[in-house]
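subagent[fold] <- orchestrator: predict structure for attached chain, return tokens only, no commentary.
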Amino acid sequence: MTATSLKAGRFALRRVAQGKCLLLNSIKGRKKSSASSSANSSATVEDGKTIPTPNSVAPFPLWQRLGPVSTAFGAYARSQRNRPYWTQFGTSLVIYFCGDLAAQSLGDEDYNPWRTMRNVIIGGTCSIPAYKWFIYLGESFNYTSKILSLGTKVVVNQIVFTPLFNSYFFGMQSMLSGDGPMQAWERIKQTVPISFINSCKLWPAITAFSFTYILPQYRALFAGDDHPFTF
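subagent[fold] -> orchestrator:
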């Protein structure tokens, strides 16, 4: 009976020892898993990368989800980056061509192709200077106050660019129509002051919008090339 009791005691001790080993192994496994998870998490934070999930992936902007329209805009943006001057020049030709067609269609007179040609020449000639001007203006007059910077750009553009551009536009219109220098000068004196006053009603707001929301490389096309159609 004593031998049986000893065997039973030994068996019970072995079961207790086995249970302790299983418990220790389970605890060690949890610690290793926790340490591995913590290491992966810290590595992710250090690398500045996170695993994307459906809720964390931002959707594409609307203009990138318009099919053929998005493709056309993407091709134009690539052309603007690779060949900015040629892109500005070609776009100005199209803008002035279409603008004059629209202006003549609103009148009662017959279509005059020579007038369209004059506008295309004027637009193509001023495209690069206008582009350089708006790039320069965007890089200048940048203060700590965004409102002060924007207001200064609007005022400088209105005082410097607008009268010079209007003088060029009306002077070239006169010269290409066959007038001499004196006649062109008289036309400038008659039209530029009035056009400058009229532009003050609209263009400061358009210039402010341009420097707030339009990318620098597109500002000349958005603002500068539309001046002759708002006189």
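orchestrator: received. Logging for downstream: The chain is about 75% helix and 0% strand. The helical segments are 2-47, 68-82, 84-105, 113-139, 146-176, 181-199, 203-213, 219-222.
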